[in-house]
Amino acid sequence: MRKCAFLDRDGTIIVDRGYLNDPDGVELLPGAAEGLLLLRELGFLLVVVTNQSGVGRGRLTRSDLAAVNRRMLELLERGGVALDGICCCVHREDQGCPCRKPGTALAREAARRLWLDLAECVVIGDKTSDVMLGRRLGCTSILVNTGIGGGDGSFEVRADLEAADLLEASRALRDRLLP
Ligand SMILES: [Mg+2]
Questions:
Q1: In this structure, which residues have their CB less than 5 angstroms from ion ligand 1?
Q2: Which domains does the chain have, with CATH numbers?
Q3: I want to staple 105 with a disulfide (CB 3.0 to 4.6 A). Which of 32, 98, 116, 142 is the partner?
Q4: Residues involved in catalysis
């Protein structure tokens, strides 16, 4: 069994610009590539799980979404890090799908495909829905709050760890794993 970091995209890896449909608008957040590298060193697979209801709302197309994701991958590659997967929910909230976070369908599917031990996995994101996803999966949860966009400001569910950005989150996780 392997372990994985389930990562939010907007507000965690890249700047949250809200329904981003232009690859030129992709900007890595400070510490993102370094944080992912450290997670990799700690033995985690790296899988992005992201809600992209802008597709369901008609604010961007699936090909816009793919172009934005590709751009993020390019920028991460320059930082020396590759992801193991990107899972997107493209439904609107009112469609009641099982994959929109905090719905667990995407992460559970990844867990089946990648032979993950969910108890060893971590969810890292900037919103309550990310923390709730971690709770529901039985993973460690880490809330990042970069102060650069993102975040819903209403953290009614406490995360296991809190950090200012992905690098700090990864260091906090390392400190917990390696006493
Ligand atoms: Mg987010």
A1: 8, 10-11, 126, 150
A2: 3-177 (3.40.50.1000)
A3: 98
A4: 8, 10
Separation of CA 51 and ligand 1 centre (Å): 8
β-bridge mates for residue 48, sequence order? 7, 86
Q: 14 near 32, Cβ under 8 Å?
A: yes
Q: Residue 145 has what pLDDT? A: 85
pLDDT at 147 over 80: no
What are residue 159's phi and psi, to 5 degrees?
A: -80, 165
Distance 3 CA to ligand 1 centre (A): 22
- Cα 171 to middle of ligand 1, angstroms: 20
Average pLDDT, the chain: 93
Instruction: Give the integer Cα–Cα distance in Å for 8 and 97.
Output: 18
